[in-house]
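Section 5.1 Outputs to date
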Amino acid sequence: MTALREIGEIGISDSREGGKDYLLRPSFEAMTRIGEPHEIVEIYADIHGRDAETLIAACADAFGGLPEWMGNAMRRVSDRLLIKSMDVLQACSDEDLTPIVGQWDEVEGKLSYSPGIMPQSDIVIFAQHLLQHGVIGKAKTRKLQRHESSVGTTEFNAIEYINAARIHFSISLDEARCLTMTEFQALLSEKYPDQKGLTKEEYSAVADDFLAKQAARRAAAKK
């Protein structure tokens, strides 16, 4: 099956003897496998670098940089990032991804990572890609200024989007749960193409133009 990158799917091939092809799809159903609504948001933030940024910022404030003795702490952050990224990839696949992403085992009371064929950096990058298409959406749509908010969300409730998809698009539960957020946004934009209003960027451009003309009129009036 060919992966549709535009809606967030990823295709992975294991070219080794006996290997197989894998399809990763960041559907609403897959997002529910990651965790509870608040956990999905927390994992999204972590995989996009929240823990590492917090640690580096704290070290910069306290020591002016990252001390050598903080290496173990950074490795622990890196390990947690890898574990969460592996979980995201697995949630988006119906197949066991151990040959691809590797696995963690307890060796002499400590967790030890046995790699698969995919580099650790790629696991994190793919997890970011899947979450962006599964939670935020990357469809090229006009987001109206009145719909934008500076307030962050603490939960991602996939069930609400599944129900909305069933209502707006008259599709079955199975079809709705297979949608990615990018796919949902694109379908919504096609169904309601004539929304009235300005995007944040368009509003800013109009406001800047108005203020510039107003300033020019006032300057001319003073002459």
